User: Which sequence fits this backbone?
């Protein structure tokens, strides 16, 4: 069965492809020749993930899924949340976003945060959602050079290294996205099995 991942991120696509069995052929937006900007105008992760999946489903009539992730910081009323990618402005860098967060938090002692990923899947006209969460703290300064986004300022609970100091295998094993993808894969494998 063909399944489209409504994302332009090759790395994410490869990662998921490697986890799926041969019953599914995972296609990226590039594979289907979709060059359009997919709208993401909802005020929450679930709405955005579904909006992206529906856009592709309606246009290409193929089963598909999309993801959306946000960093939710308690003392900032869960900001940047759905606005994580462009928190510091339209063309901002990861550095700009982290600097804005650190500046807004100042030396607050209340540094609890979580990364949350929502995946929306549309399969044979039905909608399904999968969520992954990793809890942690926002550090007072950046630590580590690996990873992307807010990795240098996020310390997952139970660990002594920020996401940017960890090797990728460790990060993927505990991360928000890793957990949501695992739920999606388990569902697809079962679904596949049940329909045989
Ligand atoms: P997306 O929905 O996966 O594109 O994620 C939106 C934004 O959240 C990204 O641009 C990053 O700023 C942030 N983000 C998502 N996942 C991670 C992560 O694993 N580490 C750090 N930042 C992330």
Assistant:
């Amino acid at each position: 069965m063909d399944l489209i991942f409504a994302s332009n991120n090759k790395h994410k696509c490869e990662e998921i492809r490697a986890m799926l069995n041969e019953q599914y052929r995972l296609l990226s937006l590039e594979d289907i020749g979709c060059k359009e900007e997919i709208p993401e105008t909802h005020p929450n992760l679930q709405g955005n993930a579904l909006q992206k999946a529906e856009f592709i489903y309606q246009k290409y009539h193929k089963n598909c899924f999309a993801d959306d992730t946000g960093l939710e910081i308690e003392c900032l009323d869960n900001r940047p949340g759905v606005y994580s990618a462009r928190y510091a402005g339209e063309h901002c860098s990861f550095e700009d976003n982290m600097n804005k967060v650190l500046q807004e938090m100042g030396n607050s002692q209340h540094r609890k945060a979580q990364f949350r990923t929502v995946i929306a899947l549309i399969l044979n006209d039905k909608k399904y959602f999968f969520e992954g969460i990793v809890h942690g703290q926002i550090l007072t300064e950046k630590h580590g050079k690996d990873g992307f986004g807010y990795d240098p300022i996020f310390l997952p609970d139970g660990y002594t290294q920020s996401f940017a100091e960890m090797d990728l295998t460790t990060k993927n094993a505990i991360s928000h996205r890793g957990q949501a993808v695992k739920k999606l894969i388990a569902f697809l494998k079962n679904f596949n099995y049940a329909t045989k």
The first strand starts at residue 2 and ends at 5. Strands lie at 2-5, 25-27, 64-73, 79-81, 112-123, 126-138, 154-156. Residues 68-69, 71, 84-85, 97, 115, 147-151, 163, 175, 177 surround inosinic acid (CB under 6 Å). The two ends are 12 Å apart (CA to CA).
